[in-house]
Specification:
The complex is a heterodimer. Chain A has eight helices and four strands, in the order H-H-H-H-H-H-E-H-E-E-E-H. By secondary structure, chain A is α+β, with helices and mostly antiparallel strands. In chain A, strands 2-1-3-4 form a four-stranded mixed beta sheet. In chain A, a hairpin with a 2-residue loop joins strand 3 and strand 4. By secondary structure, chain B is mainly alpha-helical. In chain B, 93% of the residues lie in helices and 0% in strands. Chain B is built from three helices and no strands. In chain B, helix 1 runs antiparallel to helix 2. Chain B has a domain of 89 residues. The chains are: A alpha+beta, B mainly alpha. The interface between A and B is medium-sized, with 29 and 27 residues.
């Protein structure tokens, strides 16, 4: 919770900078990039989060990354601040919070849809319907999960609307068990 | 003791006296039978002896018998007292024995009563424990039965669900999939 509030504080500051400089998309993209790099490279992540490694060395590493990745100055500066404050372990969470805040600021929402088979033509219909329902631009992400048997489940932020056959079957099973036991 | 010794010596001297007289004056008349003078002296000696003995021994003998009588009387009294004491003790012991017997009977009766009470209490406790055990067993049995029924039902439902899932997997078509998705999109549409 403490890490969450810290991440939210930094994300809010970064969002303000991004809005001021009108570079929300760029900053978001660069932030996602650096998070992905640290996520995929365990040694780098450990070095950045380790209290044993001196901040000067961490900054040197980030400087080399900056030279290669050409991160937005705001993202670069944010990471330097996190190193100074020994908050590099909050970077991933900060990225998620910033993404949600940026999406909200841009009037868009991320929706994860799981289906048993690829949606095909229905994906566009679903996106349109969701945008109408949520009154926001939908960034649809699809995932095929055969175990759900049929139907779809829609996840918006931390809410899941489950319309899969697997869920209906489970619900039916619970209902029958409850009635049989009673 | 001194008086008694003196008296013994005197008696011995007197008893020797007639013999001496007899020996002193009788030598010349032994062939002519018993001399009359000797008899007279012997008789006088004897009388004197009796007198002296009576004079000197009367008081000691009287004292002796008096003290002896007193002693015997005292002994009798003591014997009587001892006998009375013994009788009293006998009576007392007899009473005590009777008391002990009664006390023992009372003790035995009390022990019997206590034993009976303890037995009753133990029987009551055992009966209570048996009833409790029976009740607990019954409750456990009911719970186990209910649980077994529930498990059986759950297994049956799980089996049915697994069978339904298998049937769905085998029989669901691409059209079915599209139809189901479309139906759900319609539901979402209705929310707006």
């Amino acid at each position: 919770m403490k890490g969450g509030s810290v991440a939210k504080r930094y994300a809010t500051a970064l969002l303000l900078v991004a809005q001021e400089q009108n570079s929300l998309a760029t900053i978001q993209r660069d932030l996602v990039s650096i998070i992905e790099v640290t996520r995929q490279n365990a040694a780098l992540r450990q070095a950045m989060e380790s209290p044993v490694v001196a901040p000067s060395q961490k900054k040197k590493i980030i400087g080399e990354l900056q030279a290669k990745m050409q991160l937005h100055p705001a993202v670069h500066h944010l990471i330097l601040v996190l190193i100074d404050q020994d908050r590099m372990d909050s970077l991933a969470l900060l990225g998620m919070v910033f993404r949600d805040m940026a999406d909200d600021a841009l009037g868009q929402v991320r929706v994860l849809v799981r289906s048993a088979v690829p949606l095909g033509d229905q994906e566009a219909l679903l996106k349109e319907t969701l945008e109408k329902t949520l009154s926001k631009q939908v960034l649809l992400q699809t995932q095929v999960v055969p175990e759900i048997l049929g139907g779809i489940s829609i996840q918006v932020a931390d809410k899941v609307f489950d319309g899969t056959l697997k869920a209906q079957l489970e619900h039916l099973k619970q209902s029958v068990v409850k009635r049989a036991v009673a | 003791m001194k008086s008694s010794a003196y008296m013994s010596a005197l008696a011995w001297a007197l008893s020797c006296l007639p013999t001496n007289l007899w020996a002193a004056g009788g030598g010349a008349h032994e062939a002519h039978g018993i001399p009359s003078k000797a008899l007279i002296f012997a008789g006088i000696n004897f009388l004197i002896l009796l007198f002296i003995l009576g004079y000197f021994l009367r008081k000691p003998v009287k004292d002796f018998f008096t003290s002896r009588a007193a002693l015997i009387s005292q002994d009798l009294t003591e014997s009587r007292q001892i006998k009375e004491t013994a009788a009293q003790k006998f009576t007392e012991y007899e009473q005590r024995m009777h008391g002990i017997e009664a006390e023992m009977q009372a003790l035995v009766a009390e022990l019997k009563k206590d034993g009976q009470l303890e037995r009753d209490r133990m029987v009551a406790v055992a009966e209570e424990q048996a009833a409790s055990l029976k009740e607990t067993s019954k409750r456990i049995m009911t719970q186990e039965l209910r649980r077994a029924k529930e498990e059986l039902k759950q297994e049956a439902v799980q089996l049915a669900a697994d069978m339904a899932e298998d049937l769905l997997k085998k029989n669901i078509t691409a059209e079915d999939q599209q139809r189901i998705v479309r139906q759900y999109i319609s539901k979402v549409e209705q929310l707006s």
